[in-house]
Amino acid sequence: MNWVPIVFVTFKLLVLGTGMFFAIKWHYDQEKEKRVALRKSGKVVIVFAIALTFLGLFTYVLASTLGLDLTFP
To answer: How many whole angstroms from its chain centre is CA 11?
Structure first.
């Protein structure tokens, strides 16, 4: 009977230690994924802004070439 607390406490420490390790690892990986997603979304926004700028310039040049009146009233 003297060995039962030693075995149970050791088992409990191993299980809790393993659980804490994987919990910390999971939270760290979630933070990494947030940073990656934020970086990707930033790149998408920049590409969209550049595409929108080039589309506006292309439309302006095409309208000027076709002789459309582009003056504001």
So the answer is: 38
How far apart are alpha carbons 70 and 52 in whole angstroms? 19
Q: What is the pLDDT of residues 3-43, one digit of tens each?
A: 888 888 899 999 999 999 999 999 888 888 888 888 899 99
Quote the CA–CA distance of 6 and 61 in Å, as a whole number.
Answer: 82
Structure tokens at 41: 């979304």
Q: How far apart are the first and last CA of the chain?
A: 97
Token couple for 15: 């299980």
Burial class (CB in 10 A: 0-12, 13-18, 19+), 9: exposed
Q: Tell me which residue has tokens 């990707």.
A: 40
**pLDDT(46) > 90:** yes
